[in-house]
Amino acid sequence: MTVGIPKGLLYSKYHIFAESFFCKLGMDVVTSPDTNKAILDEGVESCVDDACLPIKIFHGHVQWLKDKCDYLLIPRFLSLEKRKSLCPMFCGLVDMVRSSITGLPQIIDSPVYSLDKKSLLEWAMQSGGLVMKDKKAIADAFEYALCKQKSHRTAINDDGYSNRIGLLGHAYNIHDAFMNMNLIKKLHAMDIGVVTTESVSREDIAIQTQRLYKPPFWYFAREYYGAAVNLYKKHLVDGFIYVSAFSCGVDSVVVELIMQETDSFPFMVLKIDEHTGEAAVDTRIEAYGDMLKRRVLHDYNRAADGQHMPCRQGVF
Q1: CATH number for region 163-304
Q2: The pTM is what?
Q3: Domain 2-150, CATH
């Protein structure tokens, strides 16, 4: 028996756990290829127009997999932490896929309420129970997968570059090179290093979000806000780039929160959708990189002269 895992959305963060779990149960695992133009086109054609780019691309990955597996893994992510909600698109993703794509194999859509061990074990018993009845084997596979996942790291924390920026946004926007048009590679070519949200500890994120009058309703908003403010206050980066999918409601809120806290710190919001032209993106990245280098050099010279270094407007 074969289980298919679409390489979209939260795949970059949790695929080691899922693949290890089903392999340990004796199943073959097939994943869709890296995002490409064909997958994008399939997703755009099969998904509703109002969905954001990552959701459309996920549909494209499902289209590629549907005839190549006996089971399709699409967990119903309701939350990653208790009392912290996810985007409604995650909650209704399974229903969207079923409504939009015909000829699907059996979907493993057990809900995920939290990433604590007890909740994950409940998910594993439900999901594993769809393919076998041996509860001990399922529990053993869960422990094996959990151990594998703990050694998996997605954080980027570059060193050795002239400048460093905090690269913010959903993991599926940051780690999908097709979606962001090889943004990280282009920044490295400009001698700009990258620090991602995963590089900031949970404790530091919590400290910064506790300062807000009201904690962000969305789980991801809390993560990105806390990480950005921590990097800013500890002077660990020279600026920020926020990669945001067009029409993302969570991003529209968290971007404003971060900009209010970081004042005039260099900040660029890079909007992406299926119509984004690479030449336009390259122009904005190059302009931001030039501005960043001039600002850092200016501040360095003023510091050498013993002058105070006020923040300058640097928002694109």
Answers
A1: 3.40.50.11900
A2: 0.88
A3: 3.40.50.11890
